[in-house]
Amino acid sequence: MLTIISIIAFLLILGLIIMVHEVGHFLFAKRVGILCHEFALGMGPVVYKKRKGETTYSIRAVPFGGFVSMAGEGVGEYIRIGQEIGLNLKEGLIEEIILANAKKAEIKGIIHEFNLYGQEDGHLFITLKTDEELVTYECLANASYIFSQKDPVQISPYQRCFESKSKTNRFLAIVMGPVMNFVLAFLLFMIYTLFVGVPNLDSTRIARVSDLSGNHNIIFRNDEIRNVEGNKVNTWQDFTDVMQTITTQTHINMQIYRNGELKDLVLNNIIFINSVGLGSTYRNSNQAELGHAFGRAQQAGVRAGMIVTAIEYIDNGILVNIPIDNFTTLAEEFQTFDIMTVTLIMADGQRFIVETFGDQVLNNQDIRKIDSRVGVTPSYQFSLTATLTSGFRGIGDTAMQIFRTLGLVFGRNQQVTVGDLSGPVGIFMMIRNSVSQGFWHTLRFTAFLSVNVGIINLLPIPALDGGRLVFLGVEAATGKKPNKDFENLLHMLVFFVLIGFMIYVTLRDIGRFF
User: Fold this and answer.
1) Do residues 35 and 17 touch, judged by C-beta distance below 8 A?
2) Distance between CA 330 and CA 369 in Å, rounded?
3) Residue whose C-alpha is closest to residue 155's, from 93, 67, 62, 83
4) Strands, DSSP E only, in 131-236?
5) What is the pLDDT of residue 487?
6) Strand partners of residue 352
């Protein structure tokens, strides 16, 4: 059931983010008079389409991506000199240009000359050679090419093309897609904070206990934490600070206040080795059984349920073999590593080679090398100030995380490569994880993903919005428009490169998660 719900959520979330992005482009383009041939959600073969006015609205088979086809963005013309075509007229002016005998035509002939762009004087015409004579026909500005009865495409005269608009309007038509992603994220962050609230860090009252921690039958909602491992706790921040000092213990002693009484409890402490992607389980503390496998461990094939019995690594040219009796021993060993290639040896004899993320990468992403959780969350409270500012803070925090990640991927640090980025399968798995945690987690992740889409589209890469802004910037700096055919061809070529990269990352994701 979780998988089915996750698939539905995946399609809805991507559909919403893509639609909002393309609506930003579309509405502003229409507002300044740019002809939009097609508004598409998804990529690949058309699943559904409907023409309304001068635009075809379509849904395509691959639910990742989308586009608004603006006049002037295509490469080349649909007709050429010497080609045989048909014409249908309206009050003496060309209304339909018939190609490949797609429809009955009033007039047929060979193209001798034509101008359907009209940049100089707005004059649109086609001259046909019929019965050894040349006849020139004036053309309506909204005339259409007819490829089939169901697929008319309106011609793109200069005044309706993207390049005919001012630099300001072209800039806005490009940038409004990402802007709408930021607007969506802003609203979702605000809605999340409005209904969920903010953590009450002045209290130690527990609002929720995770089933995955194994503590849901030991500690309960509304219990108040008073002491952890001999440390007095007055606020949730106190509790967090203490927990960060006992990250390698599989059990912790805690005193709580419940129904007027103090109670001493022993809680399971789930340990996470974030540098490589291993997590303990509450079910078996006498062995290093894995309750979680993620990150590079998961990429290497490690799975939850495996039991680590030893690790091996090279230290100053010497092979070191460390027996592992329990997860605490495993965590303590990894605590000492910076960048290290380690072989995990399992109880069944399997061996997995993994490379840890070093301190530089972990610090860059604000991730602790070893972390632990008992599975409790604080109570939440309403805050008007936090609600009003949550949109800005959410976008700002997400943007900083993205820029730090891009800095690692494209910087001098060799630990993180493009292979560590997630494609559609990776995004599905993240959405699946959010869905398992409930509606509000999914809503917040949708906001996070929308900011990602907005920022990635602004990168100065051809085929993306940022690449188009680069060409616009060159025009503004030089006072001369770049060659339109070259620009369109470059966008198209890089688009295919990006599709190839997406396929590569998707295949890596499949190997990583399945």
Assistant:
1) no
2) 13
3) 93
4) 133-146, 152-154, 198-199, 206-209, 224-228, 231-232
5) 87
6) 344
Q: What is the Cα 424 distance to its own chain's centre?
A: 8
In angstroms, how far apart are the furthest CA atoms of the chain? Answer: 106
pLDDT along the chain (514 residues), means of 10: 85 92 95 93 90 91 86 76 94 93 91 89 90 90 86 88 93 96 97 94 92 89 95 95 89 94 94 94 84 89 94 93 94 92 95 92 88 92 94 95 84 68 77 87 96 95 93 92 86 88 79 66
pLDDT of residue 225: 96
CB 161 within 8 A of CB 71: yes
- Which DSSP letter does residue 232 get? E
Name the nearest CA neighbour of 177 among 393, 422, 464, 385.
464
> What local confidence, expressed as pLDDT, does residue 475 receive?
92
CATH 3.40.1350 describes domain 271-373: no
CA dist 113 and 440 (Å) reads 62
User: What Cα–Cα distance (Å) separates residue 249 from each residue in 112, 153, 274?
Assistant: 84, 67, 15
Are domains 199-269+376-380 and 271-373 of this chain identical in fold? yes
For residues 294-321, b (16+ Cβ closer than 10 Å) or e, as one string? bbbbbbbebeeebebbbbebeeeeeeee
* pLDDT the model gives residue 419: 64
pLDDT tens across 258-284, in order? Answer: 999 999 999 999 999 999 999 999 876
CATH no., domain 199-269+376-380: 2.30.42.60
Domains of the chain by residue range: 84-160, 199-269+376-380, 271-373, 382-513
Q: In 464-490, which positions are buried (b, 16+ CB within 10 angstroms) versus exposed (e)?
A: bbbbbbbbbeebeeeeeeeebeebbeb
d(CA 426, CA 300): 15
pLDDT at 448: 96
Tokens read off for 469: 């802004």
CB 169 within 8 A of CB 121: no
Q: Which residue has the tokens 């966008």?
A: 491
**DSSP annotation of 143:** E
